[in-house]
Amino acid sequence: MNKKNGFTLIEILIVVMIIGVLSGVMLRVMNISDINKKARDSQRVADIRRIQTALELSYVDTRVYPTAPTLLSITSTDTLSTFLESGSYISDVPVDPMRATNTTYAYRYVSSGPTAGKIYSIYYAIESEPTTNRCGVNPYSGLSVGCDLVRNPL
């Protein structure tokens, strides 16, 4: 009459194997690569908003946006980053989430021509929509990513 309660080793192995198969199927269905691309794109939008806020704070003080005659790559050591950080408009200027693995990825800033100091544009890559190009000329050509830009509020 000694009846032992519990699971046998075979039963436990079968349950573990079923869980492994189900998790493998879920990973294929979810497509981790696309999820990561969308997450980096969301980070880019948040970064651009932080940079815009810093630019607006500097505009309040100086009544002019920093000028850049050509597309300036924001690398955290560039002149724009140095200006914004030294003026305490932002503690650290964010860089593109992919910059660590590919230096071609960078936020790009320009304020030039007759509207220099009055209007600026910030360009950024879009990984999840590689055919999108709202920038006109895509500064990320060759990376198979899309391009988007923001301009200062008018």
What is the compact description of this entry?
This protein has 154 residues and is of the alpha+beta class.
Write the layout of secondary structure elements.
Layout: H1 9-30, H2 32-62, E1 68-74, H3 79-86, E2 107-111, E3 121-126, E4 146-151
Antiparallel strand pairs: 1-2, 2-3, 3-4
Structure description:
It contains three helices and four strands, in the order ααβαβββ. Strands 1-2-3-4 form a four-stranded antiparallel beta sheet, covered by helices on one side. The mean pLDDT is 88. By secondary structure, the chain is an alpha+beta fold. The chain is elongated, with a radius of gyration of 24 Å. It is 40% helix and 16% strand. The protein has one domain.
The number of helical runs is 3
Relative strand content: 15-25%
The tally of structural domains comes to 1
Could you tell me how far the N terminus lies from the C terminus, measured between alpha carbons in angstroms?
Answer: 86 Å
Task: Name its key features.
154 residues, alpha+beta, 16% strand
